[in-house]
Design goal:
about 70 residues, single chain, elongated, about 0% strand
Length: about 70
């Protein structure tokens, strides 16, 4: 029982803190690079990725935590 709680806690921290930070950083890089190169598709991917970084933890954590 304790092992299951520890694994769930570790997984939830990974999905709630690590992945959004990485996706947010990559999205800012894509947005800046797309703006400087005037590449609208790259900017659009960056914006979608940015919103995904903010919203996906709420969707994924429900499945991981079983809520």
């Amino acid at each position: 029982m304790i092992i299951l709680v520890a694994e769930t806690l570790t997984g939830s921290i990974f999905y709630s803190h690590v992945i959004p930070a990485i996706l947010g950083f990559l999205s800012i890089i894509l947005i800046c690079d797309g703006m400087m190169d005037e590449n609208k598709k790259q900017v659009l991917v960056g914006v979608i990725l940015f919103f995904g970084a903010g919203l996906l933890p709420f969707i994924i954590l429900r499945a991981v935590l079983g809520v």
